[in-house]
User: Fold this.
Amino acid sequence: MSSNMMRSTKAILKRKNYIQGCCVILRGAFTKMPIQRVPLVLLACGSFNPITNQHMRLFELARDYLHSTGQYQVVGGIVSPVSDSYGKQGLVLAKHRIAMAKLALQSSNWVTVDEWESQQPDWTETVVTMRYHYGRILKEYEESTHEDFNGSRSHPQSLPPQLKLLCGADFLDTFNIPGLWRDDHMEEVVGHFGLVCVSRGGLQPEQVVHESDTLWRHRQNIFQVKEWVRNETSATEVRRALRRGTSVKYLIPDSVIEYIQQHNLYTQDSERRNEGMALRPLVKQAHQPVESLDD
Amino acid sequence: MEDDRRTMVTLLACGSFNPITNMHLRMFELARDYLEDTGRYKVVKGIISAVGDGYKKKGLIEAFHRVKMARLATENSEWITVDAWESLQLEWVETAKVVRHHYSLLTADEQDGDLVDSVNYTKKRRMEGNYVESASHHSKRVGPQLMLLCGADVLESFCIPNLWKQEDIAEIVGRFGMVCITRCGSDPHKFIYKSDMLWKHHKNIHVVTDWVTNDISATHVRRALRRGQSVRYLLPDNVLYYIQEHDLYSAESEQKNAGVVLAPLQRYSGDPSS
Assistant:
């Protein structure tokens, strides 16, 4: 890219928001400018109770898929375990879930564990967690752009990063549970940020999208990744096996197995935690008026 | 049943292990849990026996690498080991022969006098064809048992013409025993029911249902590798690094033995007396 073109591109990116910036770059393809990939960070919110090989596979599958679209460069992955106040049955302390996730991801060079959500005093809506992480990565990006501009480095400027929610297909189903999601939050998660949904054997994610007007409206922003290998290793199954004293080796990393044994984490008792309690989102959102989308 | 009344079992898994995956390793864990849960068995050892290059399966890379990867994968296992004997033979070796080989090593190991007596006793009974029945009525501790560990697809391969010798199948299920882990698309119970020979020895065929469906096949792993897709968390990290380091699986490697007849088919269809 010539320095004139580069300066004008930078200026464009600074003035317009990231979506329009991408359009400029893509439009540039018609004038023989190379298409730049949008840097993308994947955020996975969940119980991670405990983290399993399948969770980590989600990141790998999503990254491969997004790279193959030619539009994205996945630059990071974040595992954000939910806080204890979520109130889900069988949820062990966040400090353990964080520790296990860190052990599991020790050897990963692109996926990290973030404690912010788990440290909040109350359960945090997914969209709030997304806004927090997006704010963080955008700030980092702007700071590095600012440096570059002042340092007048000649390498081409990268596009502003995007953040998308990474999930399994069962997550899509939760949008249908009454009271679990606020409509405006759903809009923002799916419409503004976007979803990368990895389908597991047996579920019909396309059908879920079809049956929800909100999801349907934003179907372009819902990336469906097919996992052709059926692998039903879920945290629920892992906990079941642990309760029954059967092996979970090769389903979760050895380091996590050791941690679980050391702390005797998953038992009949631990599975009864929060028994009978309503999930925090259902309580919190039950009496909240739905804000107008104009806000 | 007290520990010393239980039968000591060694599980032997024969296969390509091209490459070894978490699914293979899970099979051992599932089998052990199942057998010990019956209260009649104690699983003391697992053996991975990679097939030799003479098997001539399409896409089969050198035994040297396959054995090495299996060793890496079982580094952290206290009970699963890798044996290279089968892989070192120049010609393909029938599974029944591999089982016999490992069984003889197993019984040769037994130093305990009592055990030797009971082994001789059970050997005698075995020759009378009543091994299974006598084992269950035997008051003394029975000698070690070697069982073939496999996926249900292997069980179902028994009916593929010229792939197995009938007497070999009879020996494996009659004399030794099998542990079959269910897989998608296989119905091992029905398959056993429909075969007179298998039905006769059905008490010796332990079908283990894998409730947590895990279809991570080596075929899928090779396919993903060819396409530059990630296979992380489908097999142990150290195996993955080994594959990357040696650039083991490619479109080219998948063409190995293309058009070549599989060794057992070659052997059995060519010479009816073998």
Notes: The beta strands of chain A are 38-46, 72-81, 111-113, 162-168, 195-199, 222-226.
